[in-house]
Design goal:
This protein is of the alpha/beta class. It has 5 helices and 4 strands; from the N terminus they run H-E-H-H-E-H-E-H-E. Strand 3, helix 5 and strand 4 form a beta-alpha-beta unit.
Length: 129
């Protein structure tokens, strides 16, 4: 499965949203780097790359960034880390997230942004892996 995603990224078949989940940190980090390096060149990374820790930042801030046009480039890459709202561990949430805003974005993502959600968790909302 990971090899298929890597092949598509290398062929510039880029999806608007990626969910990288599980406890294999190496595979998650390799996929994130591959995406970043195949979407943006070095100059574009300064202006069109952002990373948000969702334990500290509301999801709507990241969504607003994703909906803002790229600067000096064709695409933006936005990494979202620690989306604890996707897990069964609700007690760890420190931030109120506007999840309806997130759901709306998932239904209609910005065509010029690539949202990469990094979820290093085993247990999901329904309690299953």
């Amino acid at each position: 499965m990971v090899v298929d995603i890597w092949r598509k990224i290398k062929q510039k078949e880029i999806a608007p949203i990626y969910l990288l989940f599980g406890t294999e940190a190496f595979l998650i980090n390799e996929t994130k780097q591959l995406l970043l390096n195949h979407i943006l060149n070095e100059e574009e990374k300064d202006f069109n790359f952002a990373s948000y820790d969702l334990e500290e930042t509301p999801i709507e801030v990241a969504i607003e960034d994703a909906e803002t046009f790229p600067f000096l480039g064709e695409r933006k890459v936005i990494f979202l880390h620690n989306p604890v709202f996707l897990t069964a561990e609700k007690s760890k949430e420190k931030i109120d997230h506007n999840l309806s805003r997130f759901e709306m974005y998932l239904k209609e993502p910005a065509p010029y942004s690539v949202l990469v959600i990094s979820a290093p968790y085993e247990n999901w909302i329904n309690g299953k892996k």
